[in-house]
Specification:
- A four-stranded mixed beta sheet has the order 1-4-3-2, with helices on one face.
- It has one helix and four strands; from the N terminus they run E-H-E-E-E.
- It has a single domain, classed as 2,3-Dihydroxybiphenyl 1,2-Dioxygenase, domain 1.
- By secondary structure, it is mostly beta strands.
Length: 73
């Protein structure tokens, strides 16, 4: 089997899957408990209209990159 190399969030083609979740930190802990990993830190960003987004990249147990995101007002 050919190795796919280091996972990158900005690779050409299929780079990652994004999921909107209710609680980013809780979902990240679930991913880690299932054998996944964390890529970078949890980030919070404020947007116009009082909207806050929380994001983090993670990997599943096979190394595929996941983006976990949550939006709140």
């Amino acid at each position: 089997m050919e190795e796919k190399g280091v996972p990158l969030t900005n690779r050409t083609g299929f780079g990652h899957l994004a999921f909107e979740v209710e609680d980013v930190e809780k979902t990240l802990q679930d991913v880690l408990a299932a054998g996944g990993g964390q890529v970078g830190e949890v980030v919070r960003a404020d947007y116009p209209g009082g909207i806050t987004a929380t994001f983090v990249y993670a990997t599943d147990p096979e190394g595929n990159i996941l983006e976990l995101q949550s939006w709140s007002k």
